[in-house]
Amino acid sequence: MPAELFSGTGAGHATVPLDLLVTLTMLSLVPLLLVMCTSFVRIVVVLSLVRSAIGASALPPNAVLTGLALILTFVVMAPTAQRIGREAIDPYSRGAIAPSQAVTRAIAPLRSFMLRQTRAADVTLFERISRRPAQAQIPMTVLVPAFVVGELRSGFAIGFALYLPFVAIDLAVAAMLMGLGMMMLSPPVVSLPVKLLLFVMVDGWAMLCGGVVASFR
Fold it and tell me: What is the DSSP letter of 3?
């Protein structure tokens, strides 16, 4: 075995540990990127609010909602992921570009997706919070929180619109029970099966998934 592998004078000894370090660092950031830089936040917020509006707090279980949110996230992010693979991962795997170039190329498609969902007012807010002057290229330390705040706003707005029909059902059932003099009967006992029936009749889960995916630009 060549002596430079032990002495640290060879180029391979310096390159392989650096590549391994970059790869491990990127893998450790994948969960954070999945939550903070993709469509996951909006989708999981909408699904959770709909479950709360129906009134079945434990159904579907959290694992099912999270799994469905992940699948829809993969659907929404598929074009961005394909672009990252084409422009960053494939050239890096062939050894055509350095790790730093691969990271830069991988961030560009993700940045484009986040910018399409982010309001200029949110970017201005976090530039002021971070005390950064406005720049031609928004730094990720400003773009990421602005994107997450926008996703939370969009998720709550969609959830509010979806909440209203269920609130109307609750009010109608409560008024009906009061008119019948059935004061001792809890309205959720009657309204829950009504909401479940209507939600199934209109194919609510399919409409919900299609609508939340279509809300991304």
Answer: T
